Write the structure tokens for this entry.
Amino acid sequence: MGFRWHVAQLRTRVSRALIIDAAIVLAFIVCRIVPVWGRPIARFPDTLGYLTLDFSGSATRLWPVPLLYQVVTSDTARVVVHVALGILVWLWLALEVRFLVPNLRRAAPVAVLVLGATPQVARWDLTILSESIGLSVAVATFSCWTHAVRTRTTAAWVAASCFTVLFGMTRTAHVPIMILVAIIVVVAAFRAHLYVPLKVVAPIFAVGCLAGLFMLSNNHAVSTLNLYTVLSERVLGNPEASSWFAANGMPWNDTFNEARAYVYRDDLPPGLLDYLDLPADQSPPELMLVGGMEVAQWARNDGWQTYVRYLATHPYDTITSAATQLNPLLDPTDATLLPLAPRPIIPRSLFGPWAGWLGAACFAIAATIGRFRFDSRLAVPCFALLCAVPWFYINVYGSGIEHPRHAITMAVIVRISCLAAIAVGWDRLVTAQRANARHPLSSASN
């Protein structure tokens, strides 16, 4: 009778746990579907570029999002795919976090799902752009590397590497981050003598990085447009910067300082418009009109090299100017993002300020390292936070418009990394307290 009673109790506890987990999953699914159900789907001038698939490297957009949009041809179906992918990857991340911190087996996953249902994340499902897909791929990449570090299997390393390459291909700004991840992963695997996964991972990264560099080098339309927006934002109207650019090879006319607006495509001479090869439906910056062919040729041939030299030779201005963008990029408001009309049911405040997230994560990491050896579970969160630094600067200096939108994936990954780090720190402290409670004399003697 006693054995049967214990079995019955175990079944009851398991059933109750399954019911609670199912309710949590269902609640999250509802929180991702309701905000977009029946809401207007938004297209923007950039949308047309994502509807053209081209693997040659000369297309205005890299291939993953256009490939999906070629397979799924209606906007309604695309939003359904956005939502489905978002649900899957955030549930996957919640599961990985559950394995990561057994002492927080329900609290940490719930926190992950709440973050994944906030309006700052879910709103992008309504856009026919790259943000929704980019967010899902980034979250999946984080989950893959968390799984790879936890299981240390070759298959997990291969999957994580493939997702990293896919992440790098979702946006041009992600290509340098992909290359950085590839270098550090290969070096770390070599130093840890993980030769078996390294033999498979290294070729994947080599192909992905070469393809990314090839596409960046051929993506003249977007890179030239981005350079003009940067010049309009950071150089025009800045006497010191304009003098430096004029002295370093940029064709210059003082009338350029007033050319900080946008004009119509038909305002440009046909030859200039063909040479610039603007992305479809993109309004040209006024500098394209007043600068003419002379500035356009300089922008294509020497513009980015000159701009990088300017940033490198003005380090103080480079650092301080970017610092003013921390809050706008990492704590975006609806006014700084694209105009959309979702129906959020999770408060925006639960996205949390980036400074609070980072402060709590640093405290948890410091407390954990101060008391124990470095926990391998912190490897992915810490590495992701380090990658966020160059990622942030790329978003700030790689374009002159819509910084908060371009940086939304980075803002989400920063919060995921901080959440994982906080959970690991809490889990280690709980484990230590339980060990001390079981062996008080041993802990006192230590």
